[in-house]
Amino acid sequence: MIADEIRRxxxxxxxxxxxHNYERPEVQDVADFLGDSLELAIRAKETxxxxxxxxxxxxxxxxxxxxxxxxKVILPVQDATCPLAEALTPEMVREARASHPGAAxxxxxxxTAECKAEADITCTSANAVDVVRSLAEDVxxxxxxxxxxxxxQQHLPEKQIVPLPPEGHCPLHVRFSLAxxxxxxxxxxxxxxxxxxxxxxxxxSDLVASTGGMVREAPxxxxxxxxxxxxxxxxxxxxxxxxxxxPVEGAECEDMKKIRLEDVLHAxxxxxxxVQVEATIAARARHAIxxxxxxxx
Length: 297
Ligand code: 13P
What we know:
Layout: H1 2-13, E1 15-20, H2 25-30, E2 33-35, H3 37-46, E3 51-55, H4 58-67, E4 72-74, H5 90-99, E5 104-108, H6 113-116, E6 121-123, H7 128-133, E7 139-143, H8 146-155, E8 160-163, H9 178-186, E9 190-193, H10 199-204, E10 207-208, H11 211-217, E11 223-227, H12 231-239, E12 244-247, H13 261-270, H14 279-294
Parallel strand pairs: 1-2, 1-3, 3-4, 5-6, 5-7, 7-8, 9-10, 9-11, 11-12
Helix pairs in contact: 1-13, 3-4, 4-14
Bound molecules: 1,3-dihydroxyacetonephosphate.
Pfam families: NadA
InterPro entries: NadA, NadA_sf
Enzyme class: transferase
């Protein structure tokens, strides 16, 4: 079986397979470690494996490489990108900084390495509020997700959160609507949404959480409607088979679905596609990522 061959090659090469909660079920099943983007960054920093096969999208694999300049990091397909990350350029960050002297720059890890190099600190959806709260600055340039910026602003009214760009968004998460929340409630479910969802959906949901937060909260609920990538419900169902997790039909991130088992096998056989980050950019971005990881959890 292909999964057995993947495990055999990974063991032979001292490779660790890290996968995001949104990956295809069969890729989740073959991974050594599954998690949200914060958990994966921490695991990538802590690993002693010679090779990291990263099943996710490019900014996640880049983060793993930035934290491990001496290790080989492989993304099994070349075109698994994130449209949200591509909404922000380093020039936009520099211009915003110049027009807001004294403001801090917090970038969601869903950003390019070149943008992270311009940030004071990074965050994920799991720790965005804690990261911003930890800063001395009252004005915070926050990007590239405007809905996550809104979520942080709701929790920290004492700060001024400036979204950068003003309308950066995840094309999947902004598709969820109040009708999806109502359908979940009509079924008698608890409705949970990701903070990349629009503010009206956040306000109407029972819980707003990162994918890692969903894993931690799920044991307290019998039935959930889950407003995020549908593969999350596979992850939750494996962990808590007695509960019911309902996705919204068609809620697929096409980039997260690009890696198939065949690609993981190909990656282990050929070493393709190795992730590279230019050394000066990596050093500056590492500072922002490590500052995030060093915060108390
Ligand atoms: P998490 O922080 O929950 O892993 O979310 C990552 C992501 O890219 C959501 O679209």
